[in-house]
Structures are given as structure tokens and as C-alpha cells.
Amino acid sequence: MTTNEHLINREHKILQVRNLKKYYGTGSKTLKALDDVSFEVCEGEIMGVVGESGCGKSTLGRSVLRLFPITGGEILFDGTDISAMNARELKPYRRNMQMVFQNPFSSFNPKQKLGTALREVGKVYGMKEDRLKEKLSQLMEYIGLPEHMLQRHPGELSGGQLQRLAIARALILDPAFIVADEAVSALDVSVQAQILNLITDLRKRLRMTMLFISHEMSVVEHICDQVAVMYLGRIVETAPARELFSDIRHPYTQALMSAIPKADPEERKERIILEGDIPNAIDLPEGCSFASRCRYCTAECKEKRPELKSVGENHLVACHHIEKAKDIRG
Ligand SMILES: Nc1ncnc2c1ncn2[C@@H]1O[C@H](COP(=O)(O)OP(=O)(O)OP(=O)(O)O)[C@@H](O)[C@H]1O
Ligand SMILES: [Mg+2]
Fold first, then answer.
1. What is residue 126's DSSP assignment?
2. Which site among 231, 265, 268, 291 is 20 to 30 Å from 23 CA-CA?
3. From the CA of 180, which ligand is nearest?
4. Measuring from atom 29 of ligand 1, which residue has the nearest CA?
5. Could you read off the pLDDT of 276-295 as tens digits, one per residue?
6. How far, in Å, CA of 23 to CA of 29, rounded?
7. Closest CA to 221 of 184, 191, 187, 188
8. Distance between CA atoms of 136 and 150, rounded to whole angstroms?
9. pTM tops 0.90
10. Residue 327 has pLDDT above 60, yes or no
11. Cβ–Cβ under 8 Å, residues 246 and 327
């Protein structure tokens, strides 16, 4: 858990997302991958997005970077509405928004030296050779790898080393905003911890602003300031990380949280196994989309969709029974 409030500039909103919608398909076959998603990320803040496979995390990351057209809503990047911009209009914003992907082996060209791959990013945006050289050696120091590794090819490095370089590549242009989509999910647990430490270290040095996507609660717990929990295309709970981990309000968050292993066996609490089927995202029920799997479900939940309601500062929950989900981790 982090106490990095001093690194965050609350006055400066880098990203403001309002009622974002991304639908795939049309008519009765419409899949609402994102439905009315709203949140903000301030300068220097790491916002975590967590939820099960298929809930829309990657769609969210790619939508805010405008890698494809969105169906509705607004995306403000540093105050400018980029939601309807075309490729040409987006170009000046692209250098300011970078992405780190899950699999470092597929995000580099295996035939290209790593130095060449990194230099290319700078060159595309007209960075001068001496500036680029300086930037690369600074970044290699930051990510803790010797500069001679830039002479190697991706296949000659470990997954952890390559992911460090993928992070360096995302930082070459000093972007205002980075999306990390499952950036540690493909790595061994010990290597995951190293990369999370690296991100923590880099945010302090560089004031990084980040959307950090992961399907694992235990991963977002360590580095995020604010966390949004997604279920079937919607945010069901969002709160400052410290608060989310001490004052859980949504039964789905509770279930995700119960899956985090506890170090102390004495403290071990009940693990909630989610029962019931995930509704088909193409044909969502009228009420709460979590109703079919929820231990607290009542008739109201099946009929009426709960809206996000404020239960504390920056803490919103969409549930008719918020009083029932309490922190089962103690
Ligand atoms: N190009 C597409 N065409 C149609 N449906 C899509 C497309 N991309 C994603 N989807 C659907 O949108 C939903 C959200 O997918 P998304 O990849 O955003 O989930 P995710 O939360 O990132 O999952 P994971 O944890 O597995 O990466 C899924 O139901 C998926 O099948
Ligand atoms: Mg994904």
C-alpha cells in the first residue's frame, strides 16, 4: 500500500473519462465491453484497474489511448477532448501517451537489436542523436541494466530484463501518461516484485502518471493510489487503495480480495468462491450484472441496476447492499 500523496498534483488532471462506452457489434448482438465508465487520473497518480478476464480492462486502456474509435462518452487528455479526434489530429498526443504490454517477448521485434528498437521511438519523433544517447543511458541506469544490453537481441534476455526495457522504451519521449496492461502478469512472482519495485522507484524519480491494469488484486495493492474494480464493462467500486483495502463495500471486490493469500496462517480468512454464471456480456440482465453470483442478492438487485454512489472521499460503490460487504480480511 502506498502513501504517495506528496507525489500527486490533484490540481492537474491528466486524464478525465466521462461515460465512456465501447460497444462491439450491432443490434441484438451488441457486446457492451465498456458501459458508462467515468474516472480521473491526476498528475503523478497511479490508477489501478482490476477485474476478471473479459471485464473490459484492455478495452479501457486502449480506448483512453484512442487506439480505436469509441462508441460514446468523453476522454479529456490534459484538458483537451480527444474522444472524436482522427489519426492526424491525435498524432501530437500520441508521443505523450505510451503503453507497456503483457508479453515483452512479443512487443519487441526478435530480429532487431534492443538499442535499435529503443532508438527508433525517439527518431520517429525527431529526437536529436545526442539527446537520444543521453536519454538511453539515463534510462538504462534507472531500470538497472548495463548499457551493453542494448547490443543484444530480445531472445538473449530474460522476461524480467525485457520488461524493464519495454518500460524504458515507453519512457523515452517523457510521456505525460502511460498505460501498463498486465505488465507483470507474464512474469514469475519474484520477478513481478522486482518490476513493481522498479515502477515505484520510477514514479518517484519521474512523476509518472499511469493506468495500471491487472487481473490480480494483490498486484494493484502494492503500487496504486486509486483502484477501480470492474465487472462486465462497468466500474462497480473505486476508492483510494488504502481505503479499498480497509473498507471494502462491494461484494465483488470482497471476493477478489479474499483470493489474496495471507502470509500469516493464523490470520487466514474465508476464501469466497464465486458461484453462479457470469452473465453473457451480449445479453446483460436488467438489474445488477453481479446479481447471479452475489451472496447478498435480493429481488431489488435483479430488477434495478445500482448506480455508483459516494460512500467516502473518492470512494464510490454500485451496490444495493453496501452495508453487507465488510472487510473479510480483517
Ligand atoms: N475486437 C473485439 N471484437 C469483439 N469483441 C471484443 C473485441 N475486443 C474485446 N472484445 C470483448 O470485449 C470484452 C472485454 O475484453 P477485454 O479484452 O477488454 O477484457 P480484459 O478485461 O482485458 O480481459 P483479460 O483479463 O482476459 O485481458 C470481452 O467480452 C471480449 O470478448
Ligand atoms: Mg486484457
1. T
2. 291
3. 2
4. 54
5. 777 777 888 889 999 999 99
6. 10
7. 184
8. 9
9. yes
10. no
11. yes
